[in-house]
């Protein structure tokens, strides 16, 4: 494995992080609604599980999912239902005052972790990217480095994201449009949950 391999992986990873999906949407809403600390905690949860999926891909978990499709299906259904649950809570609290709907840091971390844990497609995506970028026969040290690098990139990305979005100007703009923005976020998260649930 070369430094160029790792840089290529990081470029692909940042592009994936910037693409709209449940993780980015959850991180955005948490940072705006609950502040920097909760936004960072959500990012730590999202990043930790994303790195676990990369580890799983490096260890060949996608082969296990192919051999036992019911395990993949069970994990996918659980993740979809949890995403729909988060969407329901966001819709329900859309008109609630901000402090009443605030998400504690521990809860933000757990929700972030569960959102990414319930997305087994991540391991399939990671496996396809890893096969293209990295050579075969990686050592245990190289695998550990790739996984640690993945976690660090995600944590830095979401930490910066939370810091930028939790500023006073961003929060004031969010507060002015909170019911509409929260309901739009809930609809998107709910739709993503349903898509995950219905995808074959």
Structure explained in plain terms:
The protein has 200 residues and is mainly alpha-helical. The protein has one domain. It is built from ten helices and no strands. The chain has helices spanning 3-18, 22-34, 36-58, 61-67, 69-92, 105-117, 121-133, 140-165, 168-176, 178-198.
What proportion of the residues is helical, as a percent range?
A: over 70%
Helical segment count:
10
Can you summarize the main beta sheet? none
Q: What is the number of independent domains?
A: 1
Terminal CA distance: 35 Å
Radius of gyration: 17 Å
* Total beta strand runs: 0
What value does the average pLDDT take?
Answer: 81
Strand content: under 5%
List SSEs in N-to-C order: HHHHHHHHHH
* Multimerization status: single chain
Can you tell me the overall shape?
A: globular
Summing up helix and strand content along with how strands pair, one would put the structural category as mainly alpha
Ranges where pLDDT stays below 50 over 5 or more residues in a row are none
Protein name: Threonine efflux protein
GO molecular function: amino acid transmembrane transporter activity
Subcellular location: Cell membrane
Keywords: Cell membrane, Membrane, Transmembrane, Transmembrane helix
């Amino acid at each position: 494995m070369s430094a160029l391999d790792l840089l290529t992986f990081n470029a692909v990873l940042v592009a994936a992080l910037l693409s709209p999906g449940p993780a980015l949407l959850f991180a955005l809403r948490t940072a705006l609604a609950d502040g920097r600390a909760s936004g960072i905690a959500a990012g730590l949860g999202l990043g930790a599980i994303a790195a676990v999926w990369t580890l799983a891909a490096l260890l060949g978990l996608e082969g296990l999912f192919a051999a036992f499709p019911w395990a993949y299906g069970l994990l996918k259904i659980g993740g979809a239902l949890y995403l729909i649950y988060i969407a329901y809570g966001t819709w329900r609290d859309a008109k609630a005052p901000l402090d009443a709907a605030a998400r504690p840091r521990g809860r933000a971390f757990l929700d972030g972790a569960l959102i990414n844990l319930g997305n087994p497609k991540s391991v399939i995506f990671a496996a396809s990217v890893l096969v293209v970028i990295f050579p075969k026969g990686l050592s245990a040290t190289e695998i550990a480095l790739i996984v640690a690098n993945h976690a660090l990139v995600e944590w830095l990305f979401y930490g910066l994201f939370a810091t930028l979005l939790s500023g006073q100007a961003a929060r004031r703009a969010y507060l002015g449009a909170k019911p509409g923005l929260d309901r739009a976020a809930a609809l998107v998260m709910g739709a993503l949950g349903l898509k995950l649930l219905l995808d074959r």
